[in-house]
Amino acid sequence: MKFFKLTFRNAGRHKLRTALTVLGMAIAVMAFAVIRTAIEAWYSQASASSPNRLVANNNVSIIFTLPISYQSKIAAVPGVTSVAHAQWFGGVYVDPKNFFPKFAIEAEPYLAMYPEFSLPPDQKEAFLKERNAAIVGRKLADRFGWQVGDQVRITGDIFPGDWDFVIRGIYTGMKDNTDEGSWLFHYQYIDERMRQESPGRAGQVGWFMIQIDDPTKAAEISGTIDALFKNSAAETKTQTEEAFALSFIAMSGSIIVGMQIISVMVIAIILLVLANTMAMTARERTSEYAVLKTLGFSAGKIVALIFGESLFIAILGGALGIALTFPIVGLMKVAMSAFFSAFPLPPLTFILAGSSAILVGILAALFPASKAMRTSIVDGLRVID
Amino acid sequence: MAQTMVQVNNVFKSYWRDTMEIPVLRSISFDIPEGEFVALMGPSGSGKTTLLNLLAGIDRPTQGNVTVAGSQISGLSDSSLARWRHDNIGFIFQFYNLIPVLTAFENVELPLLLTKLSKAERKKQVELALGIVGLADRMKHYPNQLSGGQEQRVAIARAIVTDPNVILADEPTGDLDKKSAEDIMELLSQLNAQYKKTIVMVTHDPRAAEKAHIIRRLDKGELVNGDGAR
Predict the structure, then answer these.
(1) Distance between CA atoms of residues A166 and A106, nearest Å
(2) Domain ranges in chain A?
């Protein structure tokens, strides 16, 4: 502590340089934390899944459908307690930029399978009664200012034409990572129209949600279900809801890897910036270090002064960066609520961001400290500032 | 009879420039009794500062032994030498070499930070040292708020604050005007006479050297005036 004053004053010698380095450090740590948060947000969709739920979709690809007739066979498999089908709707609300996921569901069993969707009983009753009713997540409703009773038209793309809906309920998530950004409506609504306009597409669903009684039997039950439809025209691929979500995420795998690389690069760049600052600093103070050595300071103490200053700048920048992360993630939550149900800020993100700052502080001081240690007093005193 | 404070025995020092050895000091031997005030004089490049550096333990002889305050310093490790310098040597530089971001008080306090003294004890020591050099009223001033003479006084306070056995001064008046130079020399004389400090001073200035009891002259790395008595 006796030497902290010297460390602090040294850091303040070139105020602009130190301030810019601290700011650079803050931005780098914030960028690192924000990118990690975005990656976490991606994976939070998988973490929101239940181990009691399986998903069966077409073995070829999620874009291919399954016959609705599979439902009764799946329901008969031992261990299966409930089955509900669902379908990706696509569609555009006013403008393609207004993206949000829209699912045509078998409402009653589907909602029963998702107890984490909290919907007032009167709204649920109203929704179940009306064929073109829809329920929306709280975040989605807030995004477009929708209220219960609003009439909304969606322009179909996968299912062409105009689709008029009435919002009959707004659900909220029981957990932090529960999706509140989806639009759910009755499968019958599209199925009836398909029967009239495109009969070949009627009776087809995107996937089956399957509730099971024992998560430890998930693999066995999945195998049994897939065996039922082996060598059929539409083989199934049954997996846990988490694996299903992860397979979606895997489609964006290269983006996520790219983001991870960028987060590391950001830290590497600021390492070079701080290392350059510390190298300049140590070079400017070569004669001072020689004076301190003459006064009796050991090489270890000089090294400690250099590391102290580097860590002071890095930790100050890191702390500022972490503090900045909160409002930035808050803005991201608002701007990207259509794509991510949650923006978790787990302690690990802060531990990694803080550790990165400390590591940068240590690494940046290595070279100048080593040089200061090796420079003899006589050589150091010859250096003119 | 005063004890020997500095003993230089057959010291050689040379530097290497690529593959060429450049001798700086040759066969230097002399003793300095405790409480003496010695001036080292000689033309530029004669080896004065190199010899002073050897006495301070900030450089090592190529050959020979240097014993200061009873310790043969040539064989000490770097860390032991740092401790030894702190305990035994007060060094005064030509260009003061104060730390610009620290006040006069904090500059003088620096060597005491390496001791186990409490903050209050350090304060007492620093105030005493700054009082001796006549700068008790400039303690909170930064170096850039002081004149050259005042800066050198602070540097002298820093050199004496640990109560060292030997004060080594490298051209202490070399960067000062005549009046300030006289004041500094007066102060060094006072430290020698009143506080019995052994002082070895490198100087070009004959007037500064007049204050010393012994003048030793170096030329081309060799002592040229025998026992050095004036």
Answers:
(1) 17
(2) 2-45+253-382, 60-234
